[in-house]
């Protein structure tokens, strides 16, 4: 009995004590949280971003740190598990007392941590292109909103390639749903008939694309130039492109423009059959610019592998991190509230030779680049916007959101302000 | 068309033929796919009119080539036209090199070179003189990138000589490219070629192309004749034009009827082929399921081990393929042949290690094998993450597995699926043979039926267990080689197949390999037939619900084991 | 009577004691002691403990069917998730006009999908009592129908395990579909309040923690009661020799069905308390892997000892929490090794280890 009791209480006691122990917030460092999945399905994409953050923090420290203190990365593994994301976010903010968190990839992980960041009033830098329809006081969206990726890509296909028939293929979750909804509205506004739009959703990790590719082929054989706009997510892309290649769908017949396929995804595919298919991003590794060359060199040196590629979300972290650093310098403190105010308007160089500015809606300005896949797994830029495009949190093409704006400057200070009703809704603070 | 484009002709010196090569000079700068087609037709006309001209000099080609040194694709398109316009015999080769990505610019002296992969960089030769320039590092050369529009344009120029090509398949491709874009002149050209064409399939292609033109432009008689030719043609353009006539209220009644009936016959044929295609898709999905599940049919079905690490053994096979390809980068075609035995060995050894290290302590406690092997699967996943990084690895598809066997424009069977179907059957047959005809097989069956009795008559249970588990694991590894050709090679590969594998084995009947085969193929076909009707997700859900209900009807699967062993 | 079986069940007694202690100490240490004090328990810890307790209830539910009834369900996560969804739907309806699009009736994702009206199965969820009924009814009914079919057809052993897995897998795919009207991949999130209490307030969190502790205690006593009753004895007999029990005249399938359904309801209740504490419910809760992990908690803790299952759930999840923070790169090695070693060295789990020691003395 006594032994039993002792063991049980010891175990539970240990558990309690460890969590009880106050985080040793050393005063000489500033902690930065890194919240990316290192295991599970999303590890494929997110591990690289963790390494990117470690590199950026390392470089900042070499430059003498921030506010005279060294930066310290706190890395946790939310394991591609959405409730765990919320738990780990809370752990980073409440227990480790990090000054800001860089992390998340999927929309659902962001949705899962959002209430935590709002409750504890901390900062999240979210580096991935996403569906928009959100602007939180505590989140900075350094990836593309739909108007910074999807719409320019469709414009390119329509104007430069003369595409008349559209396949909108995506994985069944909120980002493709939103993007396709926006695109459908946009295409119809441009006079495309409903018959000329085919929408198809597949589950995550879909691996058997035979029927769908055959359908696309059939749809594309109607005599009008056809293109596929793909919002297919991560893992499902490899079998999709393999099937395209094998069924002989070449980029010249039916080009596929993808919003979720970057250099890193391509490094896992034999790209020969994919030459000429397109992707729309705000950064390509092949961009010729000095800052980009320096970034690539630093990355290769940090990861100790010259074959590793860089991609768009990495650039987003690069921009986000530098913006945060500048804002902290401007505010003179890492206090979340002060940084929230200071960061609006901060402009830092992006990797394609321009400037990225944090807008009042917590989205940033980005150039839009369209690239074609080459046989070495890189993209060659075939088109780009003249300047940068401002990220639009609330799409102009969606019924519910065209009247909504986000502006976090006083006096409005609202992420969801309806200009018609004059009401600010859906806020958690 | 000649009102838009001027033409100039020169003898095609390189081929020493009496024909002439003819280039087109656009009156205005835009380079489009239409332009290429126009050029093609003009070329054909010129080929037959053969007039002598002079060969262009080096300077013209060099100057035209220099035009490629630009970042603007429009400028490149003009340069490509200029190159073609030099009528230089080397032009076609250079354009082909540009299309293949072999044409590059040396950064040091702006010289254009042809680059081929070599150790330590590229082996380069001068693009104009053909002089060998040795090997240089990859960073010393600038690639000349091209886009889709350029690619189309290049293919057009390169195909210009194709109608005259000695290879029948190339000629046919050229004709098919022209079909649907003919005008009066080119129709006449094709008609003339038709007379001298020796190859039956090329002739058929010519007939279709001419009929397509007649259908749109010809008089009523020609149209009627064309409809007769096109009856049963699967060409999508033909379908479109026939439909246009069938629905055209101004067309003569008889013509309309003929078009409708031709259309109906086409639709019938298409429906048949689409049905066949669906069967093919289903069988191919089924063969993937069979491959993924068959190793499990041994470890789980025969040995009773709930092997949650099965998926990771498949993953190991896929990674082995990756490593084999890394080790022999110059023999891609053979890499899979090497990878199959290698993957079998790797997975089998890991399997034996799992059996000796963990599972042998757990016989008689099948549910606990689930726990232990789940732990093993986590360790294996993390191990490949640590060794190979969490990123997907690129496994190349050898040339003989790429592309598809195009039976007609509706039905084409992709080679990789065909090979994988055959491979699944071979693996299945080999496994059956091992179990039926070898001593190991006999012992395996004995142990599976009655462990104690087998031991009593002298079967060395421990050795048999290890080898059986090794066999099942090895087969899983072999499946990994096949899957590496279809899907991602990454740490999550195994998880994607584990649930499906268990479903297949249980549906087929635990302990029965035939059951696994029938179940795998059956579920694959069912899934594919449901998919167009219900969508990919609902199809899968329906199949799962079907399995649940089916197990209620036959609680021991499709082919239940009989006798005492079934009760345990 | 309760005191009598508590005397015979030291593990259970300790567990209930610890629960009581935690229920007294944690609220005090969270609300009563200032954040600067070393004795303060952070809200983070409170939520975490609450989550563990929900998992413990779930493990208890599984142990009842697996440990006592011999039915290895690889789909118990489905019942947990269904309970969670029922609660999530209530919480969604509570958001009302505070949603992103400010629609008083429709949750945001429906506005977004252009749905005009609330689907019929969302009606009633604005009432807490209705949601509570559904929390029990949805998983219970599914388990009843499923069990009624499966047990009457005498589906047993691995066949049963695999079709339960098929069940949860099918549900996962179904809930992933946006057309289903449960929010697709994003699931239900952005909850505001429960019965009018702000979910982000410390007091609410502590209350939820207390509710979880109470649920665990009640569930434990109930399970204990069932296993100690005549029904429990028959059930154990079914586990050990199903045919013999059948030949003795017991309606085996009825007993199994009863226990299976009860267990599913319990899992649903655990899910319902889990959702407001973690703040999201999404189809990945239906993942077959989750259900397998659940089996592992029970195995680690000790199959066939109720308190062992609960302790296993807490321990494994605590290990997961700390491993993912301390060893983010290699924690799967540690967790995997833990599972392998437990199976090999502790065939009856931690509970078995403790009991052996107790008996040895």
Provide the CATH topology of the domain at 150-258 in chain A. Rossmann fold
Oligomer status: heterotrimer
Rg of Cα set of chain C: 21 Å
Count the helices of chain C. How many? 15
In total, the number of strands of chain C is 4
Q: Overall 3D geometry of chain C?
A: globular
> Average pLDDT across residues of chain A?
86
What's the rounded overall pLDDT mean of chain C? Answer: 84
Task: Give the strand line-up of the largest sheet of chain C.
Answer: 1-4
Residues in β-strands, percent of chain A: 15-25%
- Whole-number tally of structural domains of chain C: 1
Task: Write the element-wise H/E pattern of chain C from the N-terminal end onward.
Answer: HHHHHHHEEEHHHHEHHHH
Which pair of chains forms the biggest interface, and how many residues does each contribute? Answer: A-C, 61 and 62 residues
Helix content of chain C: over 70%
- Assign the CATH superfamily of the domain at 150-258 in chain A: Response regulator
Please state how the strands of the largest beta sheet of chain A are arranged side by side.
7-6-8-9-10-14-15
**Strands of chain A, count:** 19
Instruction: Kindly estimate the percentage of residues of chain C that lie in beta strands according to DSSP.
Output: under 5%
Class inferred from helices and paired strands of chain C? mainly alpha
- So what's the overall shape of chain A? globular
Low-confidence region ranges of chain C: none
């Amino acid at each position: 009995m006594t032994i039993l009791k002792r063991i049980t209480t010891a175990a539970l006691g240990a558990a309690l004590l460890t969590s009880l122990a106050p985080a040793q917030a050393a005063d000489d460092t500033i902690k930065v949280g890194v919240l990316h999945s290192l295991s599970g399905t999303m590890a494929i994409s997110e591990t690289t971003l963790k390494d990117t953050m470690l590199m950026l923090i390392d470089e900042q420290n070499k430059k003498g740190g921030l506010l005279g203190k060294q930066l310290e990365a706190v890395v946790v593994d939310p394991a591609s598990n959405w409730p765990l994301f919320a738990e780990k976010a809370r752990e980073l903010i409440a227990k480790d007392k990090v000054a800001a968190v860089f992390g998340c990839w999927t929309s659902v992980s962001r949705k899962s941590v959002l209430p935590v960041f709002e409750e504890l009033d901390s900062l999240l830098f979210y580096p991935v292109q996403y569906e928009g329809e959100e602007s939180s006081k505590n989140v900075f969206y350094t990836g593309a909103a739909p108007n910074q990726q999807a719409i320019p890509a469709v414009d390119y296909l329509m104007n430069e390639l003369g595409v008349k028939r559209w396949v909108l293929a995506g994985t069944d979750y909120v980002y493709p749903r939103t993007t396709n909804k926006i695109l459908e509205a946009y295409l119809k506004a441009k006079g495309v008939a409903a018959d000329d739009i085919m929408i198809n959703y597949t589950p995550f990790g879909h691996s058997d694309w035979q029927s769908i590719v055959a359908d696309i082929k059939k749809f594309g054989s109607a005599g009008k130039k056809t293109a596929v706009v793909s919002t297919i997510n991560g893992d499902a892309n490899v079998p999709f492109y393999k099937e395209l290649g094998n069924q002989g769908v070449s980029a010249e017949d039916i080009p596929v423009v993808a919003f979720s396929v970057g250099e890193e995804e391509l490094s896992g595919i034999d790209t020969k059959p994919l030459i000429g298919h397109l992707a729309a991003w705000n950064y390509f590794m092949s961009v010729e610019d000095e800052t980009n060359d320096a970034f690539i060199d630093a990355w290769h040196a940090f990861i100790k592998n010259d074959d590793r590629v860089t991609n768009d979300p990495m650039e987003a972290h690069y921009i986000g991190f530098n913006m945060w650093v500048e804002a902290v310098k401007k505010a003179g403190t890492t206090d979340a509230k002060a940084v929230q105010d200071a960061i609006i308007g901060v402009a830092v160089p992006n990797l394609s030779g321009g400037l990225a500015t944090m807008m009042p809606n917590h989205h940033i300005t980005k150039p839009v680049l369209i690239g074609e896949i080459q046989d070495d797994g890189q993209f060659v830029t075939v088109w780009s916007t003249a300047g940068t495009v401002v990220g639009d949190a609330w799409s102009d093409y969606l019924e519910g959101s065209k009247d909504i704006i986000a502006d976090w400057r006083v006096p409005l200070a609202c992420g969801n302000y309806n200009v018609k009703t004059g009401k600010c809704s859906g806020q958690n603070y | 068309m000649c009102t838009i484009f001027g033409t100039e002709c020169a003898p095609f010196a390189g081929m020493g033929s009496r024909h002439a090569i003819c280039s087109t000079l656009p009156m205005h700068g835009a380079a489009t796919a239409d332009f290429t087609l126009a050029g093609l037709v003009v070329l054909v006309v010129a080929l037959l009119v053969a007039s002598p001209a002079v060969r262009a000099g080096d300077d013209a080609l060099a100057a035209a080539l220099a035009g490629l040194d630009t970042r603007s694709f429009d400028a490149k398109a003009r340069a490509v036209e200029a190159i073609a316009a030099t009528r230089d015999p080397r032009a076609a080769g250079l354009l082909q090199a540009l299309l293949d990505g072999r044409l590059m610019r040396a950064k040091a002296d702006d010289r254009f070179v042809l680059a081929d992969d070599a150790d330590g960089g590229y082996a380069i030769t001068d693009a104009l003189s053909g002089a060998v320039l040795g090997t240089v590092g990859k960073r010393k050369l600038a690639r000349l990138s091209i886009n889709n529009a350029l690619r189309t344009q290049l293919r057009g120029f390169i195909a210009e000589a194709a109608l005259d090509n000695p290879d029948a398949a190339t000629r046919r491709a050229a004709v098919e490219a022209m079909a649907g874009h003919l005008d009066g002149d080119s129709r006449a050209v094709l008609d003339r070629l038709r007379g001298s064409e020796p190859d039956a399939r090329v002739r058929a292609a010519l007939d279709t192309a001419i009929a397509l033109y007649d259908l749109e432009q010809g008089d009523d008689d020609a149209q009627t004749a064309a409809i007769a030719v096109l009856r049963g043609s699967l060409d999508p353009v033909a379908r479109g034009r026939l439909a246009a006539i069938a629905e055209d209220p101004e067309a003569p009644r008889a013509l309309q009827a003929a078009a409708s009936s031709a259309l109906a016959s086409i639709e019938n044929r298409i429906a048949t082929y689409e049905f066949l295609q669906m069967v093919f898709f289903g069988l191919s999905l089924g063969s993937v399921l069979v491959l993924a599940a068959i190793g499990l049919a041994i470890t789980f079905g025969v040995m009773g081990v709930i092997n949650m690490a099965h998926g990771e053994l498949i993953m190991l096979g896929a990674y082995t393929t990756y490593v084999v390809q890394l080790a022999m980068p110059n023999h891609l075609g053979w890499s899979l042949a090497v990878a199959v035995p290698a993957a079998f060995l790797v997975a089998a050894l890991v399997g034996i290690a799992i059996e000796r290290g963990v599972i042998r302590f757990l016989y008689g406690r099948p549910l606990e094998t689930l726990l232990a092997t789940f732990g093993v699967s986590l360790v294996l996943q993390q191990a490949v993450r640590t060794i190979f990084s969490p990123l997907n690895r690129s496994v190349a598809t050898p040339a003989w597995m790429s592309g598809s066997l195009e039976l007609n424009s509706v039905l084409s069977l992709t080679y990789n699926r065909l090979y994988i179907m055959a491979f699944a059957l071979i693996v299945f047959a080999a496994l059956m043979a091992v179990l039926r005809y070898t001593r190991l097989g006999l012992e395996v069956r004995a142990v599976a039926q009655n462990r104690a009795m087998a031991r009593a008559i002298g079967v060395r249970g421990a050795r048999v267990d290890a080898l059986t588990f090794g066999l099942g694991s090895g087969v899983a590894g072999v499946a990994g080689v096949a899957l590496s050709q279809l899907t991602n090679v990454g740490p999550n590969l195994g998880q994607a197949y584990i649930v499906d594998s268990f479903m297949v084995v249980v549906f087929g009947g635990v302990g029965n390999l035939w059951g696994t085969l029938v179940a795998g193929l059956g579920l694959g076909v069912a899934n594919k037939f449901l998919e167009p009707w219900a969508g990919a997700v609902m199809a899968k859900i329906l199949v799962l619900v079907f399995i649940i209900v089916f197990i209620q009807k036959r609680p021991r699967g499709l082919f239940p084991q009989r006798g005492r062993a079934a009760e345990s | 009577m309760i005191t009598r079986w508590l005397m015979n069940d030291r593990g259970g007694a300790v567990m209930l004691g610890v629960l009581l202690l935690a229920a007294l100490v944690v609220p005090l240490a969270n609300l009563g002691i200032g954040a600067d004090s070393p004795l303060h328990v952070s809200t983070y810890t409170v939520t975490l403990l609450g989550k563990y307790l929900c998992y413990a209830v779930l493990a208890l539910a599984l142990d009842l069917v697996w440990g006592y009834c011999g039915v290895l369900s690889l789909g118990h996560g489905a019942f947990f998730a269904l309970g969670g969804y029922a609660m999530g739907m209530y919480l969604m309806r509570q958001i009302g006009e505070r949603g992103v699009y400010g629609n008083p009736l429709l949750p945001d994702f429906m506005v977004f999908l252009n749905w005009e009206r609330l689907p019929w199965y969302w009606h009633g969820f604005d009432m807490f009592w209705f949601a509570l009924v559904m929390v029990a009814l949805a998983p219970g009914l599914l388990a009843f129908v499923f069990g009624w079919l499966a047990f009457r057809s005498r589906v047993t052993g691995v066949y049963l395990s695999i079709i339960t897995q098929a069940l949860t897998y099918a549900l996962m795919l179904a809930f992933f579909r946006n057309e289903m009207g449960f929010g697709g991949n994003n699931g239900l999130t952005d909850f505001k309040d429960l019965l009018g209490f702000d979910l982000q307030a410390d007091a609410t969190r502590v209350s939820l923690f207390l509710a979880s502790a109470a649920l665990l205690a009640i569930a434990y006593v109930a399970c204990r009661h069932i296993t100690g009753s005549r029904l429990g004895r028959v059930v154990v007999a079914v586990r050990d020799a199903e045919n013999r029990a059948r030949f003795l005249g017991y309606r085996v399938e009825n007993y199994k069905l009863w226990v299976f359904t009860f267990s599913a309801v319990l899992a649903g209740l655990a899910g319902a308390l889990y959702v407001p504490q973690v703040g999201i419910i999404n189809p990945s809760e239906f993942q077959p892997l989750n259900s397998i992990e659940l089996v592992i908690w029970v195995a680690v803790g000790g199959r066939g000892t109720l308190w062992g299952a609960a302790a296993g759930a807490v321990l494994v999840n605590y290990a997961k929490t700390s491993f993912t923070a301390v060893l983010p790169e290699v924690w799967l090695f540690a967790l995997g090794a833990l599972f392998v070693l437990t199976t090999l060295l502790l065939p009856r789990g931690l509970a078995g280890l403790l009991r052996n020691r107790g008996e040895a003395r």
